[in-house]
Design a protein that fits this description.
single chain; globular; mainly alpha; 89 residues
Length: 89
């Protein structure tokens, strides 16, 4: 995981339990189509909730950055649309 996103200052003080879930999510998401990413994110959030944790807004932003870094602008737009639909926003 030499990606520069992991060195983002927003990730500096992340709880090790959150980092483990995040790294697992990124590993599972590699090579998956966009429509498979949202369920993976929801699953990661459930794992965090089971530990009384949640991603902060900053951590979520870095997560999305990592997951979408190799997507085309069209794929990113579709991902954002799906993410908004799933979150109800």
């Amino acid at each position: 995981m030499a990606d520069s996103s992991w060195n983002n200052p927003k990730m500096k003080n992340i709880d090790p339990r959150k980092l483990a879930v995040l790294m697992e999510l990124v590993k599972e998401a590699q090579g998956k189509p966009i429509d498979k990413l949202i369920p993976l994110i929801l699953s990661a959030n459930k794992k965090l909730q089971a530990q009384n944790l949640s991603f902060t807004k900053d951590e979520s932003e870095v997560l999305i950055e990592i997951l979408t870094k190799n997507m085309s602008p069209k794929e990113r737009a579709r991902f954002e649309m799906l993410r908004k639909l799933m979150s109800g926003k």
